[in-house]
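Fold this sequence, please.
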Amino acid sequence: MTPESPGVGATKAPTPSVPLPQLLAGLVLVGLALRTQILVVGPLIPRIQQDLGISHGVAGLLGTIPVLCMALMAPLGPVLAASVGPRLGVAICVLAVGGFGLIRALVPGAPAVLVATIGVGAGMAVVGPVLSMFVRARAPRHAAAGTGAYVAGMVIGGTLAAGLAVTLADGFGGWRWAFGLISAFAAVSLIAWLWLIPPEHGIRRSAPRRPQLPWRRSSAWLIGLVFGSQSVLFYGSISWLASAYVERGWSDGDAAILIAVFNGIGLLASLSVPLFADRIGTRRSQLALSGLVALVGSLVIAITPGEGPGSLISFSAAGLLGIGIGAFFPLSLALPVDVAAGPSEAASISAFMLLVGYLFASVSPVMLGVIRDATGGFTVVLWLFVAMAAAMIP
């Protein structure tokens, strides 16, 4: 789920040649640190609320802030890359994600935790365009493989964070320990990145140019709404699905495993769909089928409140939801390329799509948390998941 950005205005002289497997390994390893800070939150929200004394609405800000940063701060990525180069730019972002994540685990009180979350979100937001530029510069003939490598790292890292969150909290003494340990792991990603990827040499830099966004183009707004529909459902799910099942009587650990399954199956769908998307069916039929699968999964979740921990029905429904969202994501990312007349137009529409989509998505965690507070349960929230999935289809 990484924003793309038009390339930085830098003219590259020869840089050290990196074997493709080594480059892809570096991208996977650095990606491991870039989504853990979002996925670790959902399974631990009940404990965070109890410890900090906050409502569901305030707790939703832990999911909203990073997504809002991804919408508003991504344009800073080209500026950073132009200043220090993409290799060090990525390293700085990983340091920000891990460093502010560690600060978040240590500071007292909800306001300080939320402020530290802004730092986490800034690192996550800025790194997207920098990674896109790195792949274009260092692996221009393997753009799909390079992009897939860091996206795979992000989803694998997020899946592990969701699956291990409760275990770490139980084993080490609370949610702060889980946050801190997962944040500290970013050091491994940072060291691996700097070790596997040699520095760039002889780069002549020029000022980055701000992309011209297609504010008056109706198709660009529609594509933004398409991308936003799956983003709203995804970030709502990772924020509140675990808490909904805890409310149904599941343990924190069982609910965390459910989220890990949801995210892991979504990874498989995201990686598999691009392999055949240009050969089977039309983009319209592919998006509609993906939305339908997500709708079925969310509907089964909503109508089966009595399923106990480990229920095959519940895990299957979460898997269907993950497949639908996971397949919809890369298909929606392809839409700017489908409608654009050239590379610069595709970049412009893509930037606009991500801005609109993530702005919508940033509202989801807080809005759903407020609704949970107002209604006293997650029933309405889960039916809103169904409505969101239905909105993906038309």
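Confidence is low (pLDDT under 50) at residues 1-13. The longest helix spans residues 343-375.
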